[in-house]
Write a sequence for this structure.
């Protein structure tokens, strides 16, 4: 069965500091991986996704994530945090040969930015 | 406006009442989904639909009913609301699903915050 584990339900960083949000997945087949962001009182929006090819994926707002098969990880990073990055972030996995109903979301990580 | 909308945005109801949450998308996406979001659980799939008149259960379907008579609408009904159904409900859609060429990017509505007293 596929699953996603996000390490840390809450991460706090200073403005300008590195942002690192951790995601590990479990999948028996090559996965498709996603990061979604949810701003307060809004729905989720896609930040970036990995399907095939280049393992370093760049997304919107300066975020990027690297797919590491050997570590079953897809951590999200941003070199310099901005106050506007404060939000909840969800990692998700979809396996290659299953239907859309098998997109599994992690429990989320709330990112806070200190001035 | 193009996109995916949900109504109402906020709803308070009482235990035992029937409640319907509406979802409407303007992209003519084939697939639509209903999730509930609860603290510590992330998003859990309630029901999904692959096309008009085709629906299937997700992870937590008990107590919910869906229908999809038109491609653009996917209402979710709580037949007899319970306190455990207090949650934030999100509708989502995607154009394609499954297969090696599909990326399954889902587009989410703004959510409906439902409180069952």
């Amino acid at each position: 069965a596929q699953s996603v584990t996000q390490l840390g339900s809450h991460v706090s960083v200073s403005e300008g500091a590195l942002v690192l949000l951790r995601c590990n997945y479990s999948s028996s087949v090559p996965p498709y991986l996603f990061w979604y962001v949810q701003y307060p009182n809004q729905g989720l929006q896609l930040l970036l996704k990995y399907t095939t090819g280049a393992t370093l994926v760049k997304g919107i707002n300066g975020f990027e994530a690297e797919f590491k098969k050997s570590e079953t990880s897809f951590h999200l990073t941003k070199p310099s945090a901005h106050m506007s990055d404060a939000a909840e972030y969800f990692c998700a996995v979809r396996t290659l040969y299953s239907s859309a109903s098998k997109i599994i979301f992690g429990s989320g990580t709330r990112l806070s930015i200190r001035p | 406006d193009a996109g995916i909308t949900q109504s109402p945005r906020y709803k308070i109801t009482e235990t035992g009442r029937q409640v319907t949450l509406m979802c409407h998308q303007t992209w003519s996406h084939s697939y639509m989904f209903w999730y509930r979001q609860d603290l510590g659980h992330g998003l859990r799939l309630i029901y999904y639909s692959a096309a008009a008149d085709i629906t299937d259960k997700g992870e937590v379907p008990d107590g919910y009913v869906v229908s999809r008579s038109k491609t653009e609408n996917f209402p979710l009904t709580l037949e007899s609301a319970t306190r455990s159904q207090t949650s934030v409900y999100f509708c989502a859609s995607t154009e394609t699903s499954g297969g090696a060429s599909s990326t399954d990017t889902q587009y989410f509505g703004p959510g409906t915050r439902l409180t069952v007293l």
The first strand of chain A starts at residue 3 and ends at 7. The CA atoms of residues 26 and 99 of chain A lie 17 Å apart. The mean pLDDT of chain A is 90. Chain A touches chain B through 25 residues (CB under 8 Å).
